[in-house]
Amino acid sequence: MASRTVSWLLARSLSSSGPRSALLPRGKKLGLVSRGGIHRYNSTAAAAEEPITPPVTVPHTQLLINGKFVDAASGRTFQTLDPRTGEVIANVAEGDAEDVNRAVAAARKAFDEGPWPRLPAFERQKILLKCADLVDKHNDEIAALETWDNGKPYEQAAKVEVPMFARLFRYYAGWADKIHGLTVPADGPYHVQTLHEPIGVAGQIIPWNFPLLMFAWKVGPALATGNTIVLKTAEQTPLSALYVARLFHEAGLPEGVLNIISGFGPTAGAALASHMDVDKLAFTGSTETGKIVLELGAKSNLKPVTLELGGKSPFIVCEDADVDQAVELAHFALFFNQGQCCCAGSRTFVHEKVYDEFVEKAKARASRRSVGDPFKAGIEQGPQVDSEQFEKILKYIRSGVECGATLETGGERYGSKGYYVQPTVFSNVKDDMLIAKDEIFGPVQSILKFKDLNEVIKRSNATRYGLAAGVFTQNIDTANTLIRALRVGTVWVNTFDIFDAAIPFGGYKMSGHGREKGIYSLSNYLQVKAVVTPLKNPAWL
Amino acid sequence: MANHGSNGSSDDLTFPLEIPPAKIRFTKLFIGGEFVDSVSGKTFETIDPRTGETIARVSEGDKEDIDLAVGAARRAFDHGPWPRLPGAARAKIMHKFADLIDQHIEELATLDTLNAGKLFSWGKAVDIPSVANTLRYFAGAADKIHGQVLKMSRELHAYTLLEPIGVVGLIIPWNFPSTMFFVKVSPALAAGCTMVVKPAEQTPLSALFYAHLAKEAGIPDGVINVVSGYGPTAGAALTSHMNVDKVSFTGSTEVGRKVMQAAAASNLKTVSLELGGKSPLLIFDDADIDQAADLALLGVMHNKGEVCVAGSRVLVQEAIYDEFVKTLVEKAKEWVVGDPFHPNSRVGPQVDKKQYEKVMSYIEHGKREGATLLTGGKPAAKKGYYIEPTVFTDVTDDMMIVKDEIFGPVMVLMKFKTMEDGIRAANNTRYGLAAGIVTKSLDTANTVSRSIRAGVIWINCYFAFDNDCPFGGYKSSGFGRDEGMVGLQKYLQVKSVVTPLYNSPWQ
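Output (structure tokens, whole complex):
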């Protein structure tokens, strides 16, 4: 269900004037791009209008520790901002080392003495299913909070991300009672089995680009396998996690099982990563911070760490491509979620035979992208999450211009208020330019030209990252060659950003360690215990 | 499987209780999403085993009805949405189905008690809630059916697809009409199959109710079809149908053989069989005698012995034999025979006259063959099909009561000396469905577990069924497994897909 529905919804919300092509991977023959689009970003009208009042109030701003909302020990708060305006949405309790200690102690107690790991897996399943039902019930409020705090289009949050969140919890609910150890062959008369036990207290640090989905990717498998959790949300987007965590408690999650700390990386995040009572750490964020997290894990108690980090993912358009479809898909691969995707297709490699046509059409498509208040229907692109990201993106755009890439469209801030950036397309990008090497995390498409397959494989792999890749071709041999040659954790062939619950996701190289989602994610939260005992006169071995 | 704690002093519980008149809502065949009369217009009586009286007349499906049902299932599979839905979408509908069952627990438990003589309290507390959970378990499995990408020996890319096997025929016995319905229907649904279910002629009522709930839950028309009727007509038509891709049968070994023959003679459809048993319960010298006696009685008296895995041969090590017998006879009194609607009853009537007479004839055989009747051995009421919990001792290996599946509340008690003797005796049967072990010794438990040729071993417990725990037989108890992720496999085909690979950087 997920991928098809999600794709369709994305298509609807993201390319109102374009075809649904990019997003319908299952062999549908699609129409041509409509040429009738208007260059909406040239108008500043949308951003200049008064921001739409979000249809939700902020219900929770405190930390969630041991089933209760509490102030930070220090009493401090920080402001969470509306990226449409830069204005304050709410003051949120600022968790620090002391709060992390309290939360870890609660999680420790819930794990060591509480009912959660001791419940039959089937009962855990039932509670997780109830969590999903409650989230469904509050879909629109949760989506509104997400948009308000993050700036992503409301339609995307309400029709795709919150339903996907519920879907992920239903998926993991189904795993709870299917976590199988093995009985193991022995070289002699021994009975051997493996028990897959919950690992204990999991520390989880999530980013701001998909606050809810990253919550689900981390919390889902940890709960299904019987662990307890301290989750630190990104300081940019603390609100939605607090809301859904409350719903989880309503669904019957025992106290102390899921603790939520809002706060900053160097304080709360570092305290969690270096805590001696945390048994496992999972982090999603930048490669730079991932290194620090791994070091803290090593320096403290050698807790195992999974990391899902940055990327500079290639999107390869081969010579046999239907250019219209390729343009639409490449556009989606980069611009989705304001370009704030770790797996964004941020290096668009186009075969020289179709390069000129592609550039022209990619420029036209980006020019047509509707930018504006994310609460407005039909909006494809909202503001970047905060001023830091906004400034960073503009800096990269300047660098692209300075080092000689061709700015096809965009290149500036959009409007005069908030953190909106014009959809930007560079052509004639060279491999050694900063915009081709660094993760920009914004609506900036870099188009590069290639001649043959071996060349594009080499160039695609010439990066410290290895998160994902897009391949656009109808040729089965080309597809198969690229699939195996690309050193990345996900290859999307004639599609992009398909994130079903069952599909594992993660990085090669400096894009991280471990895999999330799917059956693979369960092992992040399980210890394997081998149990061996002699057999007397066994009937067989 | 806790002890009910009733102390069996009363002996007049068999007088039929006045129960709220059960509305029998569904008595027709369910084909293509509609309740329909049989083509012949024929009906058959379904009986209340408490009294032998007719509850309702139910449409009698025959070959022509099976043709219609298979046609509906075929269309639903070949052209309908069910196998084309993502697993997660099938799961959603299955969860809804489970929720609807939860909303009708009392009504469903009533149907199974009326129709099969099963304990109402047990049905309400255990059987019916469990079937909803079986559906939920397999709902959770529907999006976790993984093929494999293969390690080829040359430059080839290859993977397996696990595809739904197609139209499946499911033949359900009467002893657990609800449980067995969902043990088969749930994995078939999860896999994306469509199906024709033939419930036992003794117990069609709950199956037809489930068909109604399936429709209400949103399972598309034609995915589940239910044809009530008899084995030699409807059952035979299903097993020999050229358009059925698989048959899963639970029932007697004798009929299982016919099912397999019919499959072989028709289109070579795959078959899985869950058949009879004569399962041993081995009680070792170090056992807690109280616990052992409780387990022994539970093992064979539960559901009036109408259980394929019944622990009908109880093997006791000699050092504790005499004390065990004393305890057992005492505890046997707790197994009060009575109207299954009565909260104090622990043993209801046998399902029908035929079964009743068969069990009574085995008891007579036992007496004639020279076994000692320790307790029971008689009808337990003037009316209906009630039989006293019965225990024979001083039996020999060649007695019919030791060799045959009696399918009634009849235990044979035997003595053994060493562990090796016990294992030998336990395996001395053509069946191999289940076995129980009562011991405190780790080594005994491990050695005996591997030595007994049976599909499930319960150590210091019995009837420890679980949705995640596969279940099925060795030897003449059948083949294939129900339940667990293994239970899904028989509803799936494995397709290998292979294509050349060029310039792969690794192999």
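The first strand of chain A starts at residue 63 and ends at 65.
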